[in-house]
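Table 4 source record.
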Amino acid sequence: MHRLCHRCLFLLTLCLLLPALGGCHGAKGSADLLAGARQYHQQGQPRAAIIELKNLLQREPAHIQARLLLGTIYSETGEALSAEKELRKAQALGAPAPQVLPLLARTWLMLGQFEQVLKELPDDADGAVAVQAMRGDALLALGRTADARAVFAALLARHNEQPEALLGLARIAALEQQLPSAELLVEQALRVQPDSLEGLRLQGDLQRMQARQGDAQQSYRKILALAPDNTQAHIDLANLALQENRFDEAAAQLASARKTAPNNLGVLQTQALLDFRQGRPKAALAALQLVLKAAPEHMPALLLSGAVQLALGSPQLAENALQPFLAAHPSHLYANKMMASILLLRGKNDAAIELLLPLLQAAPDDVELLSLAGEAHLRARRYAVAGSYFEKASALTPDTPRLHAALGISRLGLGETARAVNELERASVLDNKTPQTGTMLVMTLLRNKDNARALAAVQAMEQQHSANPLLHNLKGGVYLALHDVRAARASFEQALRLDAVYLPALTNLATLDQAENQPQQAQRRYLAALAKSPKNAQLQAALARLAAAQGQVVEAQRWLELAYKEHPDEVAPASLLCNFYLQTGAPDKALALVRSLQSGHPDNPEALALRAQVEYSAGLAREALDSYARLATVQTGSAPLQMRISSLHLALDDHQGALQAARRALALDPSLLEAQVVEVAMQLALKRPREALAAARRVQQQQPRLAAGYKLEGDVLLAQKQPHEALALYERAFQLDKVGPLQVQVYRALLAAGQERQADSRIEAWLKANPGDLATRLYLAGSKLASGQYRPAIVHYEYIVAKQPDNVVALNDLAWAYLQAGDGRALDTAERARQLAPGNPAVLDTVGWIALQQGDSARALALLQKAAGLAPASPEIAYHLGAALLKAGDKAAARRQLEQSLAGSQPFAQRVEAQAMLSSL
């Protein structure tokens, strides 16, 4: 017994329902034009018939019979949308229902509107055979096999050799994997009606499903012998050629089909498949968009769209195409495999595993399913489980290189380096056609510092791939690891001899040139490559980076602007130029550029995302929020996008908006920890501790071995002034994940519980055991500074600055601590911070306040005015500026600043001093 593959079953259900008939032409008056069209139709000349009918309808738009015949011809040539349009017009003009409805039903079957067929066609067992047969076809397409069988059986009871009934039962037998029975039923139907085009087509499809390609081709050619312009037969022959990778023949058959029916959905669909198979995904997508515009629920087009969008690197759009397909065909194996791949691309490893498990139960030896499951566990860092899937898959297909490569990666994750290298070596031996697995082996050996073995591996690959520049570039990298710069240069140069614009080798040579203080040589290399590829945006960007590294800002800008000018419709050059404008203090130019780009591509997700990013970087949070919201209408299933929207709401102090966006993210990805954290924080900010607590506990239920859920509950309890209860939760979290941030929370809870000595003891012990945890030390120093314990704060800040001399926060706070402790090093330390961050308002405030304390009132006033302009909402800076103004004798201005500092409820350390100063005025 032969088994039908899922794809074949799908095509049988949705495509074999369509018959393939013939065509028409004409002369002077309306009657003559109609007669001529009928004659052309009978002679199998549909395009000529269509011309006659269109001429007639120009004269008499309300001619019912012309509309009916035109709709019939469009239906027969597979131009379903045009057929439906003409038949609807005939119906509106008063064409009798028994005459027009069966014709409409045929177009609905083509368009996949099966429910419409059942709704409009009468359910009458004694009705017309053709009508009842189409009802049976619609039921079968909807998966209602038992109901379809009953319809065809009833037809057969009326006439025991009814061709429509026999063909319907043959389709059912095929779907039930009873191919011999299906063929017998088709043969019986063809004995009754030897010239049945529908019967011949089904016969060919059944033969094709049994890999009898020659017989199938003969059946399809019989159709063309009876009807030379039969569109569907050309499509079927094209699909047969595609199945055997005979692309030229497939293209020729499609060209023949287009002559008869240029707008046939099957022609467009098969052309899309041909383009996809030949590596032209953009062309395939254009054809599919035409199909889906005409028939939005066309299932083969939705399925292929998913594959095409995936190939184009648009997993979200691929998922959007596959969702309606899987809703109609939830068990379709190929579609489920694609959906699992999409989930992996989007980082939803557990969701992919959940999708794959039932499929693996049904098909435990499916190598692709095993590979996908292995990859999902690998990405989730469950290396042992991943390895078990890859081992089973490689046992089923022991000569598949990618499986051994994947098994090697899982071994690396388990720390089994020797076994990992063995698997990668085996993969490399098996895969002698492409260098990918060998490259992975070499990179693994380099990572393990087994440089000599890496060189041997790359030299072995060289025997098979000596003309591949990637290999010579890799070899150069190995020589660099061996500290043989001369040999590395030679390998990079060899890569460029093979491909003069091979950017990785160019970049490596340019890096060596710069390291040897020869930037001009690096520039000459890039310019030589650019001469061979004059509009290469990547080379122009490389020249810009080189110029920027030499401090040649104007030259860098020139190259980036040239790249954008020569590629105005591409997002990558625009993105580089926008970022350059932002970094060089020209946000207006970045905004103008990105808005121009996006207005020219209003529905392009990349352009929208770039606009939102630039607006955010330029400080336009509201505009960025609007752009991200528009992007969310295109990328409807992106949880990370919803989190960006949430962060912007938060930046705008909109806690409710941030919460709603986080909840939308959770609806898309219920285990997204980032969204769960925001939900808890926003519920607390909105004074909803009960909801915050419930959200924290949901995290615990979902992932009981994750520290985050217990930490979040501790945060809620600490905010509710329950430090002892919070401490217990933090301790539990710390046992699951011994990290500095959780040690900080333990410290905070102990302080809140009045156990300062124990808090200090715990965190000091942690820092002694983890001296490199500067973030925790910085928190402790800040805590001591805030509580007025300046000497302990100084000790910790000095430790941090010794390790990180450029840490602006530590330097600034150390200067403040020195000032409060009366240490003369305060101003010098603050000046060091200002040199590193001359535009930081907190640093300017510190330098200005120290200068004021030391009697330099004029300098203090200038610095504090600048700080206040950069941070107008800071109450502490406003107080310091008020004090400086008072010292300068400007009491009115001082009063305004002091009132501003005290206007809000935001706490600051010197609030009492500010109130006292204001009272004295």
